[in-house]
């Protein structure tokens, strides 16, 4: 029978304790990496949703711009574009003035 204070037993106990600590640390790292993976997947889904939303909005804005172009060109000719340009210019100047004052 071996003695409780046998150096081999102490080394085995220390080894078991070190192994237990290492197992705990590896488990913690595994959970952290799984949480990071889940977060990345969720962010990826959000980016896909945002991309789809922007694509849809772009399509709608382009369709509206085409309809506006057709309406203004057919009804009023080139003079309507001059008026629209002036109105946009006035709004931009007003926004810049408001921001800086």
TrEMBL record:
Presence of the UniProt keyword Transport in the record: yes
InterPro entries: BET1_SNARE (IPR039899), T_SNARE_dom (IPR000727)
Residues of the T-SNARE coiled-coil homology domain: 9-71
Transcription in keyword set: no
Topological category with respect to the lipid bilayer: Single-pass type IV membrane protein
Membrane-spanning parts: 80-97
PROSITE patterns found in the cross-reference section: T_SNARE
Assigned keywords, A-Z: Golgi apparatus, Membrane, Protein transport, Transmembrane, Transmembrane helix, Transport
Cellular component, GO annotation: Golgi membrane
BP term (GO), one: protein transport
The organism's place on the tree of life at top rank: Eukaryota
Subcellular location: Endomembrane system; Golgi apparatus membrane
Major place of residence: membrane
Protein name in the entry: t-SNARE coiled-coil homology domain-containing protein
